[in-house]
Design brief:
Largest sheet: 3 strands, mixed
Number of strands: 7
Shape: elongated
Order of helices and strands: EHHEEHHHHHHHHEEHHHEEH
Number of domains: 2
Helix content: 55-70%
Strand order of the largest sheet: 1-2-3
Number of helices: 14
Low-confidence stretches: 76-82
Distance between the termini: 59 Å
Radius of gyration: 26 Å
Mean pLDDT: 82
Length: 361
């Protein structure tokens, strides 16, 4: 579906935990128990991806955890909760309904095939009885997401309700804090009851809540920084009529990786250092106009850094965004210099705050 799938490091490490919990039943059964968990997550996330496609949401990536996936949206409107009403409930219910429905189908199939399978015996999830575990792993993952703990599905609905009253950033922090509190309660309850799966669920709820909380914090920071504060104002440009050999000479004497191509004051393209070198090697000397990319996005000085970062992320191979004012290029922002500019801006703001405190005294 064009969505990048990422797997959190703790997901494959959970296989080691499954092997450890199943040591008495053998390695293959421990591996089978891990695959039972993987299949439950696969059912859940496939259903959510289908619903997201049906709603027309543009997803950039999904990060897989043992409790499910965290979506990264390709546009800020979706990320900040533009899916309201029925669409919001559809996204929240897709995963639990898929898991619980799959559990019911599996239970009916197993009982119909053999009445000797005892599905309600405890422990419900164990390597010793993989068929029973398949049913309860699906059901357990579905029921888990009905808890109001962010980033679980019911917690997302709760965050959406908070966001309509208090804004997206504050709602994200409140929901993430509540999710972490409930995760601690689940881990404590699991240790008291000696239910290892409850401890594991609480741990990964905590991990997911922290990931989301860090994302909200990062978003709140970058949305306070404007392009005029971090853009490079000392930069080189190329002309469409420049030869590639001349452009290569410019590259030698510049630290830039990418160059805006301008005709007079008008921006007409972007070309990278690597593209210049590759074109010279394959086709020989030519003109910049024939090699430059005409697929680019621009920012304005008053745009926030958050908006620009999302443009860089959604553009295929996009590593530079020119900043224009009335059609004239007044600066550039590139991935190459962005972290350095942010670090220096943070230091500048710190010094300004200290100076303001000194003046107030």
């Amino acid at each position: 579906m064009g969505v990048e799938v990422r797997v959190h490091l703790f997901f494959p490490l959970l296989m080691v935990v499954c092997l450890g919990l199943s040591s008495a039943d053998g390695v293959l059964r421990g591996l089978g128990l891990f695959l039972v968990l993987v299949s439950a997550v696969a059912v859940r996330e496939t259903a959510r991806l289908l619903v997201a496609a049906w709603l027309g949401l543009r997803l950039r990536a999904i990060l897989l955890l043992p409790i499910g996936g965290l979506f990264a949206y390709a546009d800020p409107e979706s990320q900040e909760g533009s899916v309201q009403g029925g669409g919001q409930f559809a996204m929240a219910l897709a995963g639990p309904l898929a898991n619980i429905s799959t559990a019911l189908v599996l239970a009916a199939a197993f009982l119909g095939a053999s009445g000797e399978i005892k599905l309600v015996n405890y422990p419900w999830i164990t390597a010793a009885y993989l068929l029973r575990s398949m049913v309860w792993m699906q059901a357990g993952l579905g029921l888990l997401h009905l808890l109001p703990a962010y980033p679980l599905d019911a917690g997302r609905l709760l965050r959406g309700s908070f966001a309509r009253k208090h804004g997206f950033a504050l709602a994200g922090r409140i929901s993430a804090g509540l999710g972490q509190a409930l995760a601690l309660a689940a881990m404590a309850g699991g240790m008291y009851l000696r239910d290892y799966w409850l401890v594991i669920a609480g741990f990964f709820i905590m991990i997911g809540a922290q990931i989301e909380d860090q994302g909200v914090f990062f978003q709140s920071v970058v949305d306070t920084v404007h392009m005029r504060e971090v853009m490079l104002t000392d930069f080189a440009t190329l002309s469409p009529s420049d030869t590639l050999a001349d452009a290569l000479v410019r590259c030698v004497h510049s630290l830039q990786e990418d160059f805006p191509v301008v005709r007079g004051p008008q921006l007409v393209g972007i070309i990278s250092r690597q593209r210049i070198v590759d074109a010279l090697r394959t086709d020989g000397n030519g003109y910049v106009q024939a090699t430059m990319s005409k697929a680019f996005q621009v920012a304005r000085p008053e745009d926030t850094l958050g908006t620009t970062i999302r443009r860089i992320q959604t553009g295929r191979g996009l590593s530079l965004i020119p900043v224009t004012d009335s059609g004239r290029v007044v600066g550039i922002v590139s991935v190459q210099n962005l972290m350095s500019s942010m670090s220096l801006l943070a230091e500048q703001r710190r010094m300004e705050r200290e100076q303001a405190r000194e003046d107030a005294r």
